[in-house]
Design a protein that fits this description.
The protein is mostly helical and 169 residues long. A two-stranded antiparallel sheet has the order 1-2. It contains five helices and two strands. α2 (37-72) runs antiparallel to α3 (79-110). The protein is flat, with a radius of gyration of 24 Å. A hairpin with a 2-residue loop joins β1 (2-7) and β2 (10-17). The protein has a single domain, classed as Four Helix Bundle (Hemerythrin (Met), subunit A) (Up-down Bundle).
């Protein structure tokens, strides 16, 4: 399973393997949370519903993005239609966020205070790992781009610009 990661450091989406960062709602049991049977049943039911809702919303976003790209590819795209489509995408993204908040709030209600602390610690560590992965991706992309562009040799710039110590004649 991958998550799209976007941020200030990169305008493009970065796919990150959740297993690499150690946090996935389906693997909370592996984190040593010590769920009771009742907690496990509640978490499973909650997670199934959450994942199904998120999947549906993500598909809606993909479909709306495709329609937006299609409109943009037209010879004379309708600007009002583009704005409308963008607002529809934002509305679904808002639902995604609301759904996640609702899920986390309900999950929090299932957990004991100790389990909540552990979940918070895992999420904090995962966010730090995601940030590092995103920065590595941006650095790799930048280095690749620099190699492709190959800066001109230093002599080419010194031939054009006089040395600062040289006096104009």
């Amino acid at each position: 399973m991958t998550l799209p990661l976007t941020g200030r450091a990169s305008a493009q989406s970065v796919e990150v393997d959740i297993a690499a960062v150690g946090y996935d709602i389906n693997t909370l049991e592996e984190g040593g949370f010590g769920f009771s049977n009742l907690q496990s049943q509640k978490k499973e039911a909650l997670s199934k519903g959450f994942l199904a809702d998120q999947s549906t919303l993500r598909e809606q976003i993909k479909t709306k993005h495709a329609a937006l790209r299609q409109e943009l590819s037209l010879e004379d795209p309708d600007q009002a239609q583009l704005h409308s489509m963008a607002h529809e995408i934002l509305a679904v993204q808002e639902k995604l966020i609301d759904n996640r908040i609702d899920y986390l709030f309900k999950l929090r209600g299932i957990l004991t205070p100790e389990q909540r602390k552990k979940l918070y610690a895992i999420r904090t560590e995962s966010q730090a790992k995601l940030k590092v992965l995103a920065e590595e991706r941006v650095t790799h992309h930048h280095q690749k781009k620099m190699k492709e562009e190959k800066a001109p040799p230093l002599s080419a710039t010194t031939d054009i610009l006089p040395h600062p110590d040289e006096k104009k004649k």
